[in-house]
Amino acid sequence: MIAETVCSAVAAAGLGIAAVTAYRKRFLSAVRIAAYSLVPLGLVMTGVVEWLADTAFSPTAWAGFVVLGLSWLLFASTRAVERRRGGTRKERKAAAKGAAQREAVAPAASAPSLGPGTRPTAKPASKPASKPASRPRTETATDDFSDIEAILKKHGI
To answer: How many Cβ atoms are within 10 Å of 7's Cβ, its own excluded?
Structure first.
C-alpha cells in the first residue's frame, strides 16, 4: 500500500519537473522526463508493484531466485568450458567432417590440390654463361621502371 503511494508521488513529481522543463523551452528533455515519470505510475496500475511487494517477503520466491541464479551460473560455466575447448558442438562437428574430407585425399599424393599456397624452395636451373655472376641484375629493375614510366606518361605526369 505504501509502495503504491510512493510510486504515485514520484510520478506526480516527475510530471511537475517535466512541466517546468517545457516552460523553459526544452521540449525534448521535458518529454523524456515525462516518459520516465510515467513508468512508476504504470507499474502501480498494472499490479507489478503489488506483486513485487508480495515477492519480497515470500521465502518461496527467494528460493526461486536462488534456483535461477544457480541456473545462470551453470550456463556461464559451461560456456566458459566450451570456449576453452575450442568451440560449440556445431564447430566440433564441422571440424570432424573437414578431417574426414581431408582423409579422402590419397595419402600418397605429393601435394594437396587445394591447400595453403606455398612457394617452391627450388632455385632456377642455371644462369646464362654469357653474363658474369658478379654483375648486378639491372635489366629487371629498368624493366620495372619502364613500366612505371609508361603509366606515368599515359596519365600525363
So the answer is: 19
